[in-house]
Amino acid sequence: ERHLLRADYFKLNRYGENTLTRQINFRNQVFRPGDRVATNLDWRMLGFNYSWVALRRDNWELGVGAGLHLAEADSRAEVRARNIRETGSGTVILPTLGVDGTWRINRHWSVGGFLRYMSVSTSDADGSFGDYHLDVQYRWKPNVAVGLGWSSISLDAEVSDADLPGKLNIEASGPELFFRVSF
Description:
By secondary structure, the protein is mainly beta. The protein is 0% helix and 80% strand.
């Protein structure tokens, strides 16, 4: 009753086209001011989180835990007018510490949420990762619920390692409609 395991999957695809106002060095290519650049980002993340319910009362509970998120990204940038393109990809495991909470309004309705966060600063890398969620759910069977929520994921990293230097800042947030099975 006091142990929770959550598995989440997130996928984000983004495409954009813009005229550069400053120079950008991406891997082996130099993209100059005035270049019309088409970019594509495909980001996938699989997370596993464990929480232990530290405080439990009749209608609410609060837990603390830890998680691992496997994030994988593929990116592409292209200037068609100069016939140049560059691709990049990477995979990283992001550990997090977190807090989970649930308030049961009545037998069918509840409000729940979690915060997962990690920050790292070394000589080669500096960054943070956050995964936040808040929802309202209707439990129509003891182990089955539907809900409406809001989720936000952010990743901000700067790497100065000589093999793969770069900066990445991704933020994705928005509403979600979900179906949940608990056992």
